[in-house]
Write a structure and sequence with these properties.
By secondary structure, this protein is of the alpha/beta class. The protein has a domain of about 140 residues: Nucleotidyltransferase, domain 5, CATH 3.30.420. Strands 1, 2, 3, 4, 5 and 6 form a six-stranded mixed sheet that branches. A hairpin with a 2-residue loop joins strand 2 and strand 3. Helix 7 crosses helix 9 and helix 8 runs parallel beside helix 9. The model has no long low-confidence stretch (mean pLDDT about 90).
């Protein structure tokens, strides 16, 4: 049966992880959401070609970059930082320009973006994939999202003070998923698939809420 004829919508929450990209797919029929088995795929092409095709997918990666350097934060990232609030807004990382991502060496990237850190360079692999792959037509289905912004919305626009890397932060986010995303809470209690950690599973599952809130255009 063609994806457009299915009696449900396919949603996806997608985050980068050491093994590549973690996908948490879910079927949405009316108000009922049922998450399917999480999966780690190696490349962003595997995400785009995932079957059954997504109707809407929230991905933890920038879509649309500045061409030349224009400061460390995109306007949408600064808005997200303001909404998330201290201290979790530190999780919204700067986004390098397209020119810096395409620079042949770290030294040349640093000349363009002196604010780049070792942590930023570790993200280059995923950022480059997104920059190279996503075209305007992909944006009918895939859109950039941030897990910390998602969990702020799930928390009724209140700041979360806990870290998802600590036990109290894990429990807080699990409780929000149980409360706001019934039907998918069992996913976050599982052992993550190889190549991903619990934090990635929490993030990708939370992003299903964002995917549900923004249906794909037709």
């Amino acid at each position: 049966m063609a994806a457009s004829k299915l009696p449900y919508k396919m949603l996806g929450g997608i985050v980068p992880c050491p093994g590549g990209w973690l996908i948490v797919p879910a079927r949405l029929a009316g108000v009922t959401m049922v998450a399917e088995d999480p999966e780690v795929v190696k490349t962003l092409i595997d995400v785009v070609e995932y079957k059954p095709r997504f109707d809407a997918a929230a991905i933890y990666a920038p879509i649309g970059l500045n061409d030349p350097p224009a400061g460390p934060y995109l306007a949408c990232d600064q808005d997200a930082r303001d909404l998330i609030g201290w201290p979790r807004n530190l999780a919204v990382k700067p986004t390098p320009s397209r020119a810096a991502l395409r620079a042949p060496t770290r030294a040349e990237a640093l000349e363009l973006e002196p604010w780049l850190t070792r942590a930023d360079f570790r993200r280059f692999k995923w950022l480059r994939e997104a920059e190279e792959l996503f075209a305007p037509f992909h944006q009918r289905i895939f859109f950039a999202a941030h897990p910390d912004l998602t969990f702020t919305h799930l928390n009724n626009e209140r700041q979360l003070l806990s870290s998802p890397y600590q036990q109290d932060g894990v429990l807080e986010r699990m409780a929000l998923i149980r409360d706001k995303l019934p039907g998918v809470e069992e996913i976050v209690t599982r052992t993550p698939p190889p190549g991903a950690a619990q934090v990635h599973l929490l993030q990708a599952t939370g992003l299903l809420w964002t995917a549900r809130e923004r249906p794909a255009e037709r």
